[in-house]
Amino acid sequence: MEFEHMRQTLEYYKKLREKTVAAIRPQLEEVRGFDAIIQRLASDLKEPVNLEPLITESVVLSAPTNGSHAAVTPTPSSRPMLRPDEFFQMSQSDAARAYLRMVKRAISMEELVSALQAGGAQVGGVDPKKTLAVSLRANPKKEFVWPNKDTVALAEFYTNRK
Asked: What's the sign of the alpha-carbon dihedral 25, 26, 27, 33?
């Protein structure tokens, strides 16, 4: 009984959130469609594009157990939709750079190989993951970095870090 008013308030805000998410979901999907088109065109033109991130259901509210207020932690975004010819006739470095710019975050080498193959890039060798890693490490412009052993990113993602 002591916290009944807080439970009622919690339920009120949970229902309000559900209504709000249901109301804006179509607009978020429409914006995601625009983002995909913009990313593809920019990639085809080999032009960088920085889109303002959307606050969507991929943002998870996690309440710390120490009693402080909830923190907002983004979860990894889903994989972008790729055309089967997205990376056709591109070098491995160009295709990797284009895909990493699409996802705008560090990813596993397995995800990168899978995405490049899905987009029509040629990634071969006995172990395509190793072959691609060797190719990216040999990149003369040093555009690729490894935040940890099996995760690759673009160096440009970290230009503001010391």
From this structure: positive
Residues with Cβ within 8 Å of 38's Cβ and at least 6 positions away in sequence, in order, are 49, 51
pTM over 0.85: no
Burial of 97 (0-12, 13-18, 19+ CB in 10 A): buried
For 44-67, write each residue's pLDDT tens digit.
Answer: 888 777 766 655 444 333 333 344
- pLDDT, residue 55, reads 52
- Using alpha carbons, select from 137, 62, 71, 151 the residue that is nearest to residue 103: 151
Could you tell me which of 51, 123, 54 has the C-alpha nearest to residue 92?
123
> Which tokens sit at 57?
């259901």
Which residues are CB-contacts of 4 (< 8 A; sequence separation ≥ 6)?
none
